[in-house]
Amino acid sequence: MTGFILGIDGGGTSCRAALADADGVMLGRGRSGASNILTDPDTALKHITEAARLAFEDAGLKPRLDATQAILGLAGNNVGDAVGYVTARLPFARSQIVSDGVIALQGAIGDEDGAIGIVGTGTVYIIRDQGQFRSIAGWGFQVSDLGSGARLGQLALQETLLAFDKIRPMSLLAEAILAEFDGNPELIVDFARLAKPGDFGRYTPKVFEFADQGDETALRILKVGASGVDEALDAVYAVTGAAGKLCLLGGLAPLYPPYLAERHRTRLSEPRADALTGAVELAVKAYAEKSGVRA
Amino acid sequence: MTGFILGIDGGGTSCRAALADADGVMLGRGRSGASNILTDPDTALKHITEAARLAFEDAGLKPRLDATQAILGLAGNNVGDAVGYVTARLPFARSQIVSDGVIALQGAIGDEDGAIGIVGTGTVYIIRDQGQFRSIAGWGFQVSDLGSGARLGQLALQETLLAFDKIRPMSLLAEAILAEFDGNPELIVDFARLAKPGDFGRYTPKVFEFADQGDETALRILKVGASGVDEALDAVYAVTGAAGKLCLLGGLAPLYPPYLAERHRTRLSEPRADALTGAVELAVKAYAEKSGVRA
């Protein structure tokens, strides 16, 4: 073998790196800070390099970035300008930026056709169909991502105001949320005006928690959310057919299944590995075959 | 009689004034620019004064603001600081700021108990019950105002993306909206990220237009919107009882009735006068009786 293989899984909060030999045998791992190539490409470059060096250190090796071939799965990869800027400045012998969804799918289902649904603060569905990638939803909180943590949290605040106004019955969930805002609906409005998706998403664990206890407001919210996920999964199946594997990933993946339609629930499988492992696998294949990975 | 009576109806885009004698006989009208006391109280003061002077001119009279008693129905009246600042600086002999909803209700249903639903870019319901005012909804676009123009427009963009992703069937409405964004869903996302309620509301006329032609997407959006209005009206009736009058006001008022539940549709009545007339009526009563108006 010649040189090293590196997988990078980077996003808005952290950047993780896994170092392997040319056969994909793991040697070490590293972790650094945010690597959002859209909002701050220079910081992303710094953290990608740092995570790579830490992976070499973790393996007990002197960093040899110039002898390393990397696949980087990064959020924001669909904006050409950012990708070009970052790719030109990466310190590796060869590197390719793909979407964070593509490495997650590789990790979860390996080389097979199938799909993943990432249900976290946002929602997006990535399909591999005869080697081709497609994504569904994931357009963001304002007009998409039905069933996402952000949308569920927003619905929780909305339902709290509906209960306050006696438009819908008061419930323990609505009481609990109202209490967090000192019983003052105007504080909810102030919060919502400036809230980012992650801010709304902070109320989502409470929704699942109260739904478990049979709270009607929480169950109504999850009915809306699960219906959004169910409909998207129907669209996924229309592409993959019944044979395709399906995994749910993301923070809400363990919580959602009981609320999904049975036709989907019974077809879910556990992911076989994480996104970082997926990135390493793709890198091994790409550089062994001397060919690019489709993103 | 001594002095003049002035009604002011002010909001984010304009300020209207109506001048009357102490018996409420209309003498003249004036109109000036924005008078949002929350976002720009000094400009609001300038435009209120200008509209009042123009009403005197319209009546063929020399402005006598210091001999004028005014009721001002202004958006943003629920924030005490702004009200205090503006009230202290108004040029009138006596003046009182009430909500824009209170003067609209007075105009629409007069002195009776009852309610109005203002369905425009936002939605809010104002109830007068044994002389006491209450409002329902109206907490703003992010977590309230179900069925408002802003929410309908947002739903239209959301449905367009769902159709683009084949999660729901493509329709003529979704095609028309997608065409406005050059067939590029990313342009919808860019728009939505920065859109204010009025920006979303620009797509709402199209929703009603296509619903008239039986478009399934448009009908689905209006079903959601009308259900939000129906539920709020149920909460209104729980306060007013069946005897109370009900008027819909605002830009969507002429469009919504065919989509509302029959129990509400059959109870709607036409407003008897506009908000500015309501402000004058309240001023005549307040200053004739030498007592304040409740807001």
TrEMBL record, chains A, B:
For this UniProt entry, the molecular function terms from Gene Ontology, in alphabetical order, are: kinase activity
Q: Which InterPro entries match?
A: ATPase_BadF, ATPase_NBD, cNMP-bd_dom, Euk-type_GlcNAc_Kinase
- Keyword line: Kinase, Transferase
Question: Which PROSITE patterns does UniProt cross-reference here?
Answer: CNMP_BINDING_3
Pfam families registered for this protein in UniProt? BcrAD_BadFG (PF01869)
Q: Which SUPFAM superfamilies match?
A: Actin-like ATPase domain
Question: The Cyclic nucleotide-binding domain covers which part of the protein?
Answer: 110-174
| Name of this chain's protein | N-acetylglucosamine kinase
